[in-house]
Automatic annotation (TrEMBL):
<dbReference type="InterPro" id="IPR023267">
    <property type="entry name" value="RCMT"/>
</dbReference>
<comment type="function">
    <text>Specifically methylates the cytosine at position 967 (m5C967) of 16S rRNA.</text>
</comment>
<dbReference type="InterPro" id="IPR004573">
    <property type="entry name" value="rRNA_ssu_MeTfrase_B"/>
</dbReference>
<dbReference type="Pfam" id="PF01029">
    <property type="entry name" value="NusB"/>
</dbReference>
<feature type="binding site">
    <location>
        <begin position="260"/>
        <end position="266"/>
    </location>
    <ligand>
        <name>S-adenosyl-L-methionine</name>
    </ligand>
</feature>
<protein>
    <recommendedName>
        <fullName>16S rRNA (cytosine(967)-C(5))-methyltransferase</fullName>
        <ecNumber>2.1.1.176</ecNumber>
    </recommendedName>
</protein>
<keyword id="KW-0808">Transferase</keyword>
<dbReference type="GO" id="GO:0008168">
    <property type="term" value="F:methyltransferase activity"/>
</dbReference>
<feature type="binding site">
    <location>
        <position position="311"/>
    </location>
    <ligand>
        <name>S-adenosyl-L-methionine</name>
    </ligand>
</feature>
<dbReference type="Pfam" id="PF01189">
    <property type="entry name" value="Methyltr_RsmB-F"/>
</dbReference>
<comment type="similarity">
    <text>Belongs to the class I-like SAM-binding methyltransferase superfamily. RsmB/NOP family.</text>
</comment>
<feature type="binding site">
    <location>
        <position position="284"/>
    </location>
    <ligand>
        <name>S-adenosyl-L-methionine</name>
    </ligand>
</feature>
<dbReference type="InterPro" id="IPR011023">
    <property type="entry name" value="Nop2p"/>
</dbReference>
<feature type="binding site">
    <location>
        <position position="329"/>
    </location>
    <ligand>
        <name>S-adenosyl-L-methionine</name>
    </ligand>
</feature>
<feature type="active site" description="Nucleophile">
    <location>
        <position position="382"/>
    </location>
</feature>
<feature type="domain" description="SAM-dependent MTase RsmB/NOP-type">
    <location>
        <begin position="170"/>
        <end position="446"/>
    </location>
</feature>
<dbReference type="InterPro" id="IPR054728">
    <property type="entry name" value="RsmB-like_ferredoxin"/>
</dbReference>
Amino acid sequence: MSHDAREIAFNILLDINQNGAFSNIAINRHIKSGLNPQDENLIRELVYGVLENKLYIDHMISKVSKIKLKKIHPSIFEILRMGVYQIVFMDKIPDRAAVNECVNIVKKYGHKGTVGFVNGVLRNASRNKEEIIVVDEKNKLDYISIKYSHPKWMVKRWIEEFGEDFTEKLCQANNHKAEINIRVNTIKTTKDILKKTLMSRDYVVRDGLYAKDCLIIDNPYRITDLEEFKLGHFIIQDESSMLVGQIMNPREESLVLDVCSAPGGKSTHIGQIMNNKGSIISRDIYDHKIKLINDNAQRLGINIIKTEVFDGLKKDDSLYNKLDYCLVDAPCSGLGLIRRKPEIKWNRKEEDIKDLSILQYKILENVKDYIKKDGILIYSTCTIEKDENINIVNKFLKENDNFRLISIDNLVENKDEIPTFKKGYLQLFPHIHNTDGFFIAKMIKER
Ligand SMILES: C[S@@+](CC[C@H](N)C(=O)[O-])C[C@H]1O[C@@H](n2cnc3c(N)ncnc32)[C@H](O)[C@@H]1O
């Protein structure tokens, strides 16, 4: 494992924490194609490990640093976090190597004083490992927040909503790496054929539990370099997100509007289920994201999608009473995606949930008139916050008595594992379902 890998991880962490970059985008930006797999793995482990355990690591640093955390320079802090992560969480790296490599990075990015400081803190952490990992369990809120590194406001909300045990398990699962799921493009291949092809290339492949088109890959190394990917035989998508198309279950020759559709994961799935027959209008507010939908549709061979830059809050009289199906896959807090994007824990603010719920409700209200009688409205998010999910749907149903929830459990495999079906909607959790945290409600317009 090279010195370069750690330096690259350091620069990625700075990019995420100081420039607000998304982890997956920052990683792709910094990892150059010539890098060997071992170094690439180390970079990913360091970046995700530090992001996932940030609060816990800071708690450990506070026990061995003579300087107050607030006074440590952000770059030096990041190097310390990487060092402590390697010392505490990575058995395969000897502490001495972790300390020396971090000191080498400080030599390049810090000054003489900081070299001594980092060396001292990391040696201290290594000597007192057993002691620094302990977190006081007296106050359960503080304990969960530090031990599983989630902001206190988030843990508090979840304890109030779901209880302490549930919250602890959820936070623990949020720190586990999510599996890579792929959706088979049944327009171009079959699940069996793709499964066999992937297995013949030494990929370990399993069926998803809930979504028909889902395969789970245990060792997804460079899976998007495969010819099958380039030919559009599959797309990377979480199993939960595949359930939107599956639950919509659109008929061929329908007219569908996907209001918030970039990068097109659900639009292309809907097109696949419709056997490329009918019409899908895929909109998004951001011009630059439209290209992503077009690229995905083209690669997957879905040719019934028409993309448009369009604000979901703006009225479009031309669609009045026209739609068979309308999907509002709303912009949301993304708190169901923490396994994949741990930086969400640190970038999201509690006030965002209120602001987003206002936007989500307004979008629903704005599109309801586009749906024709007996047409379907699907509302989905990748969060576990009730205020962005069932509370939005209930408010909408209260204000619009011509809509009602319709049962969806018959459309999902292993339905008994999803207790919210009894209440008429789907809510998935990472620690229970091993999927992203995800919400789906299906409503019919009766008049
Ligand atoms: C959850 S993502 C959609 C994911 C997409 N449905 C898929 O499956 O690939 C939400 C999308 O809503 C878009 N968005 C945010 N505000 C919007 C608005 N007012 N009108 C339309 N789209 C909006 C964002 O750009 C983002 O792409």
